[in-house]
Description:
GO terms for molecular function: ATP binding. By secondary structure, the protein is an alpha/beta fold. The protein is 42% helix and 23% strand. The chain has a domain at 1-85 and 213-260: P-loop containing nucleotide triphosphate hydrolases (Rossmann fold). Adenosine-5'-triphosphate binds next to strand 2 and helix 1.
Amino acid sequence: MSRLVLEEVHKTYGRGRNAVEAVRGVSLTVEPGTTLGLIGESGSGKSTLGRICLGAEPIDRGRLLAGGEDFARFGRERLAEFRRKTSIVLQEPELALNPRRTLGQSVTEPLEVHFPRLAPAERRERAEHAMELAHLDPGLWDRYPRELSGGQQQRAGIARAVVTEPEFVVLDEPTASLDLSVRGRILDTMRELQDRLGLSYLLITHDMATVSALAERVVVLYKGVAVETGEWRRVRRDPEHEYTRTLLSAVLTVRRHGRG
Length: 260
Ligand SMILES: Nc1ncnc2c1ncn2[C@@H]1O[C@H](COP(=O)(O)OP(=O)(O)OP(=O)(O)O)[C@@H](O)[C@H]1O
Ligand SMILES: [Mg+2]
């Protein structure tokens, strides 16, 4: 995908005494075919930034640029193209899947939205291909979400996210609801998809192992401010900002004392 850039973005929810400054002057760049990790404590503005990168959350100040073009100036066609080329994988696959639609219907839905003129057979073929890419058996086509395992549901969310052949995908805590054994395999699938489809990812996560598995670079977010940006290997080894140090050592402490 063309490079995706945020320039000095600000976003406040609410007004007056209830105002929450969720994002305060954040700049970031996601290079084509690469993964940018977005880390920070709960409430630091990660999901808000994810939605902003998709043009799904209006901003107060700053710019979203795709391929050097200002999102705010997109005409109807360019906007439709941008929507086709971007998507999101959510933490809770249940939220991404309609409980009343079969797996096949859920995976096909984005094609109905973005490619309404495709013939039904062609749609089915593309949806089955996306399922195969996500390592999900197309034989599950007629199953409902409650008839799938957590891992299968997450793969369905991934198949849905890639069925339109996007170039940029936001992964918002993509493995947080999965147990460790499934997590590793889902990460492998996401990396494989990145290679095969040339995807760029914005990876939102609390899990440093997930960052290590996917991200080349990271942005560390603290109360809506990007306090540190850089190559993940460097940040992990030699964090510059006090908050990054706290964040990394908190994770290590939890590991040591808690879940092993
Ligand atoms: N639609 C909204 N209306 C009002 N406030 C919101 C809205 N969405 C988010 N916020 C607030 O903005 C701040 C950032 O929220 P955000 O969801 O981006 O955090 P996050 O880093 O994704 O947190 P988590 O790790 O818990 O998912 C929080 O204070 C949150 O309460
Ligand atoms: Mg979030």
